[in-house]
Amino acid sequence: MGLSITTKCIHLQDTEAHKDQFGAISYPIYQSATFAREEVGGGTGYDYSRLQNPTREHLEKLVAQLENGIDAVAFSSGMAAISALMEMYKPGDHLIVDEDLYGGCVRLIQNVCRKNGMTFTSIDCSSESIEPHITNKTKAVFVETPTNPMMNVVDIQALAGITRANGLQLIVDNTFLSPYFQNPLELGADIVVHSGTKYLGGHNDTLSGFLITAEEEIAQKLRFIIKTTGAGLAPFDSWLILRGIKTLPIRMERAGENAKTLAKWLETRENVKRVIYPGLVSHPGHEVMKKQSRGFGAMITFEVHTKEAAFAILRSVNLVQFAESLGGTETLLTYPITQTHADVPEEELKKRGISDKILRLSVGIEEVTDLIHDLENAGV
Prior knowledge:
Blueprint: H1 5-8, H2 54-66, E1 71-75, H3 78-86, E2 94-98, H4 103-113, E3 119-123, E4 138-144, H5 156-165, E5 169-173, H6 178-181, E6 191-195, E7 209-213, H7 216-229, H8 235-246, H9 248-267, E8 272-276, H10 286-292, E9 299-304, H11 307-316, E10 321-322, E11 332-334, H12 346-352, E12 358-362, H13 368-377
Parallel strand pairs: 2-3, 2-4, 4-5, 5-6, 10-11
Antiparallel strand pairs: 1-7, 6-7, 8-9, 9-12, 11-12
Helix pairs in contact: 2-8, 3-4
């Protein structure tokens, strides 16, 4: 019988994990750039930390275990992971991507991937069929679910049925829910993406990114790419993410409960025009989320009536911090149009409904009544 996901966050179910580390309960930080060999062809299995490092390897095995994959590759940031992912494709290849991607992904696609000869079709994968957009050059479909910041929900299993029937790879960014709430590989995805900076790390103190797969051929390609491009996660940062993952279950449960309470409270506020949270029955993706995930996460997007109202709230919050990023113990309020999506063209923002009245809330693990009091005092 396998371990529960809560226990897996603390214990790696792998005999290699039980090698003698002098009894250390916290896996050691191997802060070494290189490793000595005793003879030609012999050694410890480690040569140079760009290729692999024991601390990073331990973390990668743990993340692969949490996502039910055969391999996970740890990068220096979420964008480093996505940049490496795009190296799997060549000039002329076509990808279908969700139109509501994180702004950094949009910037990468528009300024780097297109320059490298790749082509893209951007559609709303939560409501529009990908089939009319598939060509003989289409290689993959890339989605987030829920999306950033408009919280659209993509039916992973249904989409995987189409990608598999057409010989395409399905890539799912699972950052918003973490492996604790959702496992895209189990639903038919080929590659899972995480910004480990967010919920996996959980403390807003380091950057990391992950690519996870259950397919050997993809794993080998990703290993070659990280070896060649060199954006592997450093030992100390690997250790910080390992430490963060130990509390992932209790953080996700607490933040998720806080988010449900806050979303319902926001719905009652006269200053709030609409609340977008998949945990609300009113959300169009609510039933899909119930089917494919074990929770609704802790990300809320809400719209106020005017830009001036949004500015006033951002100036007035105290306990809640006006800052980019998400997924930490602290509650953060983000203004997507000038922060996470500042480089997205105006016409795309308009199409996606990202206006100067939209605020994104990453709910933390504070006492929820304190968060409500702070937001109320800020004019929400």
